Amino acid sequence: MLSYTIRRLLIAIPTMLVIISIAFFMMRVAPGGPFDQERALPPAVEANIAARYNLDRTLPEQYLIYLGNVLRGDFGPSLRNRDFTVNELIAAGFPASIRVGLSALILAALIGVTLGTLAALRQNTRTDYAVMATAMTGIAVPNFVMAPVLTLIFGIWLNLLPVGGWGGGSIENLILPIVALGLPQLAIFARLTRGSMIEVLRSNYIRTARAKGLPERVTVVRHALKGALLPVVSYIGPATAALITGSVVIEQIFEIPGIGRYFVQGALNRDYTLVMATVILYGGLIIVFNLVVDLVYSLLDPKVRYS
User: What pTM did the predictor assign?
Assistant: First the structure.
């Protein structure tokens, strides 16, 4: 398994290079620039600004300079937030995003897998229909609709929870954004678990376990659940990266100081370095979590072996 992990990490190097290259040139060819303003600056000032951020060089030179800085872990200065570097902005926003994202993922996975398993065990009953109806609702209703509804009900009508603000990361301020962010994922986990569990429960080794007289709880938890979790584990990889990097809508609605809002602001303001850093972070998380998922596969499925 160690050799497999090393090979995957080596393969990740050209993958990240491709991601960086595509993102860099797409940002540069987009119309507009980071210093376009309604009021035109004097030519001398524009020249000084361009020289300060290497924008007066050719595109290949800019690319090589940026690539060299990234290899040293330096994402450069923010082109719009003049008092901060991109590293400082990411360091300030990432803890909030990772706290909300991981909390939403854990909530969605635990409840979604439980509901999906319950629906599979009681297939075509009222319980199954209720779980699947709830799951379809969670998938169909986007979080930019769910978040204001939750805010209206629990924040304004019932006055139970704060409707916005970080509050130093207090539990009261985290409940609504975590629930709003996790509900669609919960529905997906429930559907994936139900479909996979139904298939596993009809397999031969589960029939054998039941024929041996094993209790139903042992058969489901110890044998069926491991096989049923394989599609769920596959989905957890990209879902984790997406949730950790932050939901733009959730962060905007609840005023969470995460990196999602930086990405949108950077894209609108043509803040090249900030957008690039967010893309690189997202791509790196995708690669890492997909590797973790593949390694977990070998623990859940004895037929999977990495040599």
Answer: 0.81
